[in-house]
Amino acid sequence: MDALAAWRGALVKEMGSDAVFVFGSLVYRDGAQFYQATSDVDILVVIPQSVAKDALSRMEWLTKFLAQKSALAGCGKSLAQNAWA
User: Fold this and answer.
1) CB proximity list for 16: less than 8 A, separation 6 or greater
2) What is the DSSP letter of 28?
């Protein structure tokens, strides 16, 4: 969860996201149903109002977001290990 919290902080700071929510098995019942080998991490990211107005701004923001998301994908193993902490 520390890796996810750090990713969220960077996303809000660098990308200006309005909110980031985690849901699903990672947080439900304190992660009791999260299985490292088969579970995914469910995340909802709210696009900032400043880029939601036009398609070009959204496309540029989403392109940058893809790089941030890829960085999170590299943290997958540590997320799973921390779910049991």
Assistant:
1) 48, 50, 51
2) G
